[in-house]
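User: Here's a structure from my thesis project, written as C-alpha cells. My advisor, Dr. K., wants to see whether a designed sequence matches the one we expressed. Can you design one independently, without my sequence as a hint?
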C-alpha cells in the first residue's frame, strides 16, 4: 500500500502506509471515543509555537490540534497565521486538525473556513439559550458547506481567552446540554464545570458530578477549556467522563516566555535565532508534558 499525502492541490503517494496529515476534528475525537485518552488542542500564535507543538506530536506519534482564538488575532492576524497553521498540518507526520477557537463573529469564522481550517468554534455562551442555539446552527451550516466540523459552548467557562475580561463561571445544565445538541447537531461541545481560562488564582473545584451526568446522556465528544493549572488527576477524570478535546493555551504561552527567559539568564542568546530556538523548545516541552498526561501518545496510527 502506498502512502497518501495531502497537499494544497491534491494528494501524492509515497511509501506503503496511508497518511493524510490534515484531518477533521471529528476524525481525531472519533478515534478517542470510548477510549481512555483525549487529544491536546494547543493554542499557537507564531511559527515557533507551531513547530514546537508538532515536534512533540511527531516524536510521540500523537494526533494533535492546532488552534487560535479570535481574541488573539490583534497580535496574530488570521490571514497570516492561518495559512501557516494549515501548511504546517499538511506537512506534518501525524494527523493534525486546525481549529478556530472561541469565534465571536461570523466574518472571522468565514475567514477561517476560507483559509482551510478543519473545524471552527462559535462561542455564543453569553447569549440566551435559544439565541446561542440559533447562532450555532448558522455556523454549523457554514462549516458543513466546507466539510469542516463545529464546536460550541453551553454554560460559561470562566475568565477570557486573553485574560482581558472577568467572566463568571456558569456551570452547564446537563438537560440544556442534551437539548442544545439536539437543536444544533454540533460535532463537539465545550462544557463549564468550574473550569476557567488563564492561570487559576486558587485550586479549581471542578463539578465532576455535572460532567458525569452530561457524559452519561450524550455521545458527542466533550471539550474542556481552561486546562492550564489542572492536575493530572483532574485531566484523567475528565477524560474518563467523555472529554476528548482539552484546550491548552495559557500554559503554552507561559512555557514559551519562561524558556526565553531561561535562555537569557543562562547567557545562551547570542542572536535572534537563539531566541527562536528557545520559543520552539518552550512550546515543545509544554506539549510533550500534556501529551503524556492526556494518554494520546502512539494514537496517530489509528486515525
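Assistant: Designed independently from the structure alone:
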Amino acid at each position: 500500500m502506498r502512502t497518501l499525502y495531502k497537499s494544497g492541490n491534491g494528494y501524492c503517494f509515497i511509501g506503503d502506509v496511508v497518511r493524510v496529515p490534515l484531518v477533521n476534528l471529528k476524525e481525531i475525537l472519533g478515534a478517542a471515543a470510548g477510549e481512555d485518552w483525549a487529544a491536546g488542542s494547543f493554542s499557537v500564535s507564531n511559527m515557533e509555537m507551531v513547530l514546537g507543538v508538532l515536534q512533540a506530536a511527531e516524536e510521540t506519534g500523537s494526533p494533535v490540534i492546532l488552534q487560535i482564538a479570535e481574541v488573539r488575532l490583534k497580535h496574530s492576524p488570521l490571514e497570516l497565521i492561518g495559512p501557516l497553521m494549515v501548511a504546517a498540518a499538511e506537512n506534518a507526520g501525524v494527523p493534525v486538525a486546525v481549529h478556530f477557537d472561541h469565534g465571536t463573529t461570523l466574518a472571522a469564522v468565514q475567514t477561517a473556513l476560507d483559509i482551510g481550517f478543519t473545524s471552527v468554534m462559535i462561542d455564543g455562551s453569553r447569549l440566551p439559550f435559544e439565541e446561542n442555539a440559533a447562532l450555532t446552527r448558522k455556523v454549523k451550516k457554514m462549516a458543513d458547506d466546507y466539510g469542516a466540523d463545529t464546536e460550541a459552548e453551553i454554560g460559561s467557562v470562566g475568565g477570557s481567552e486573553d485574560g482581558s475580561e472577568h467572566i463568571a463561571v456558569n456551570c452547564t445544565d446537563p438537560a440544556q446540554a442534551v437539548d442544545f445538541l439536539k437543536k444544533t447537531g454540533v460535532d463537539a461541545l465545550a462544557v463549564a464545570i468550574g473550569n476557567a481560562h488563564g492561570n487559576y488564582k486558587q485550586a479549581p473545584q471542578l463539578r465532576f458530578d455535572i460532567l458525569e451526568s452530561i457524559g452519561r446522556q450524550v455521545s458527542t465528544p466533550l471539550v474542556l477549556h481552561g486546562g492550564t493549572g489542572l492536575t493530572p488527576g483532574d485531566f484523567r477524570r475528565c477524560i474518563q467522563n467523555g472529554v476528548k478535546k482539552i484546550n491548552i493555551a495559557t500554559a503554552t504561552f507561559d512555557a514559551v516566555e519562561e524558556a526565553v527567559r531561561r535562555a537569557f539568564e543562562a547567557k545562551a542568546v547570542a542572536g535572534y535565532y537563539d531566541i527562536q530556538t528557545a520559543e520552539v523548545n518552550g512550546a515543545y516541552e509544554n506539549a510533550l508534558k500534556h501529551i503524556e498526561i492526556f494518554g494520546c501518545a502512539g494514537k496517530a496510527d489509528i486515525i
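When you compare it with your expressed construct, this may help: The longest strand covers residues 96-103.
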